[in-house]
Design goal:
Layout lengths: L1 E4 L7 E6 L2 E7 L6 E4 L10 E7 L4 E6 L2 E4 L12 E4 L8 E5 L2 E7 L9
Antiparallel strand pairs: 1-4, 2-3, 2-5, 5-6, 7-8, 9-10
Length: 117
Amino acid sequence: MSVSGQGFAAISNVQIIFNNVTMTVVAADTTGSFNTSFTVTGATTSTDMVIAIDDYLNRAFAAFTPAVSLDQPTGIVGTSVTISGTSFSANESGIKVIFNDSQIGSTITANSVGAGT
């Protein structure tokens, strides 16, 4: 996941927290901005929070919501449906689609920006 921010204290450490776990600490530049990334491992809930907080307790929050969509929301039995998803890790493999407690289709590998179909 890529994270960027601005408005933090200049040259301060910014702690990046995801699901109540510190994922990385990055230094803000002279303008109080930063860019960093980390790998999201394991399952996520419907909405997870990313929190950035610096040495002076300046903080920002953002919701991380994996997105899955269907190319057609309805159909008769036997209709083929394409499922697309985003917010996976870059090149993540082994992504499964589960329907009624059973895996359908083969596993999916996300592309370089974390999307898969």
